[in-house]
Design a protein that fits this description.
It is a single chain. The chain is an alpha+beta fold and about 220 residues long. It folds into 2 domains: about 90 residues, Glutaredoxin; about 110 residues, Glutathione S-transferase Yfyf (Class Pi), Chain A, domain 2 (Up-down Bundle). Helices cover about 55% and strands about 5% of the residues. It has a 4-stranded mixed β-sheet with strand order 2-1-3-4, covered by helices on one side. Helix 1 links the parallel strand 1 and strand 2. The two termini are about 30 Å apart. The mean pLDDT is about 95. One of its GO terms (biological process) is glutathione metabolic process. It is an enzyme of class 2 (transferase). GO terms for molecular function: glutathione transferase activity. It holds the Pfam family GST_C_3. This is glutathione transferase.
Length: about 220
């Protein structure tokens, strides 16, 4: 082992992408192993690597961690991106859970049947502009600070930045009514670790395409 965290997932975004984002934002280099066959996945289960028979799998600090939320919490705590006290942590958790609800819609979008794509895209736009983004616009406006919690960069900021870019890929003008979020996006984009992650050739994955969808269905088929 090189000492770097080792990420096992498919060569695509999915549930691993927020983990890649958080490690990158913390300035941590990592290695990746890509699942391409059902046999690889079954072997991980057989060898006892996957506690609940699910990926993502992250090997870090001698642990084989599964469950996205647990992995993200650990990374956030380890790299001081999880607030200074319990109250700040609770706020971060609330914001992260809200963003995760929006991201779940985006995560499932590539698997929509063709005749449902337009309807699902409308749902993403409606939720982003009416339910989720207004919350963060209001938070930034009310406390007048650059970051969501405690005027310090945290896991919540990373997750929000990922969500903004993911929604913008589908609905380019989605931030038009959210001036504070526009400023937030610009500031986040210029943070050195995030700027590096947004460059071509970084471990950030492209939007899911037909090949990715096909691989997911093949690897995880029952």
């Amino acid at each position: 082992m090189s000492g770097k965290p080792r990420l096992t997932y498919l060569n695509g975004r999915g549930r691993m992408e927020p983990i890649r984002w958080l490690l990158a934002a913390a300035g941590v280099e990592f290695e990746e192993v890509y699942l391409e066959t059902k046999e690889q996945y079954d072997k991980l289960i057989k060898d006892g690597f996957l506690l609940f028979e699910q990926v993502p799998l992250v090997e870090i600090d001698g642990m084989k961690m599964v469950q996205t939320r647990a992995i993200l919490s650990y990374i956030a705590g380890k790299y001081n991106l999880y607030g200074k006290d319990l109250k700040e942590r609770a706020l971060i958790d609330m914001y992260v859970e809200g963003i995760a609800d929006l991201m779940q819609m985006i995560l499932m979008f590539p698997f929509s049947p063709p005749d449902a794509k337009e309807k699902n895209l409308d749902s993403i736009k409606e939720r982003a502009t009416n339910r989720y983004f207004p919350v963060f616009e209001k938070v930034l406006k009310q406390h007048g600070q650059d970051f969501l919690v405690g005027n310090k960069f945290s896991w919540a900021d990373v997750q929000l930045m990922e969500a903004i870019l993911a929604v913008e890929e589908k609905i380019p003008a989605v931030l038009s009514g959210f001036p504070k979020l526009q400023v937030f996006k610009t500031k986040m984009s210029n943070m050195p670790t995030i700027k590096k992650f947004l460059q071509p050739g970084s471990p950030r994955k492209p939007p899911p395409d037909a090949h990715y969808v096909e691989t997911v269905l093949k690897v995880f088929k029952k």
